[in-house]
Amino acid sequence: MVAAAEVNSSGPEKIRILVADDQGVIRMGLAMILDHEPDLMTVAQADDGEEAIRMIAQYDPDVVLMDIRMPVMDGLEATERITKAAKESGRDRPAVLVLTTFDDEAYVLSAVRAGASGFLLKDTDPDLLVSAVRAVHRGDSLVDPASTRVLLERCVELERQVGSGPADSAPVGAGRWTGPLAQLSEREREILVWMARGLSNRDLAAKLFVSETTVKTHVSSVLSKLGLSSRVQAVVVAYEAGVVRPGEAEVRWEG
């Protein structure tokens, strides 16, 4: 069991981070990168998913960096429990940013289904890691660009296998707004399409000439109506429904 180390800070409120990884060297390395930033602070470290869940109750982090392969309880199960508990309590934190050394579509899809707000490989550039932490804290969902391609291609492949993929000539947003998608208002459908294209809350606010608060309200409504836990899950739904096509999505990495 890893003893938690909370750091006292003064000045502006910092983003509180819990790092969960079964390798001490990795945990310490991540903590050093994050604590070097003036707006970030590592408040606790856990060496398995079960301990991470206990520490969330104790340290109340804003973001959890979660390894996938850990003993006792792996990161996927821990992520699912964390996001489910947050959803049931009506909270939007902590956001879970999954880290792994395995560039495998199965892990990407599993992390998304578990409710992770982001997915990064452990060899990600430190600046990208820091930007991703800030982004998921803002409410934007991010995944590693390479893994995004794998994820979306896999979704499209599954659609083609069942013979329900949209025709290549279909215009953007002309997929099937049926089932749960039929509950969305016109503005919410627009929000979903632009989310699937990779726009952040800030991008959406600028594009739609509304405040980020308004965008967050629409995004929350979309996720609630679709029964989803994260924006990444919404992207998958948009592709599965054919309302967005491959090649139209891009991931924005912003600090």
TrEMBL record:
Please give the Pfam families that the UniProt record associates with this protein: GerE (PF00196), Response_reg (PF00072)
In terms of SUPFAM superfamilies, this protein maps to: C-terminal effector domain of the bipartite response regulators (SSF46894), CheY-like (SSF52172)
Looking up CDD domains in the UniProt record yields: LuxR_C_like (cd06170), REC_NarL-like (cd17535)
What UniProt keywords are attached to this protein's entry? DNA-binding, Phosphoprotein, Transcription, Transcription regulation
Domain Response regulatory, chain residue ranges per copy: 16-137
**SMART domains from the UniProt entry:** HTH_LUXR, REC
Q: Which PANTHER family match?
A: TRANSCRIPTIONAL REGULATORY PROTEIN NARL-RELATED, TWO-COMPONENT RESPONSE REGULATOR
What name has this protein been given in UniProt?
Response regulator transcription factor
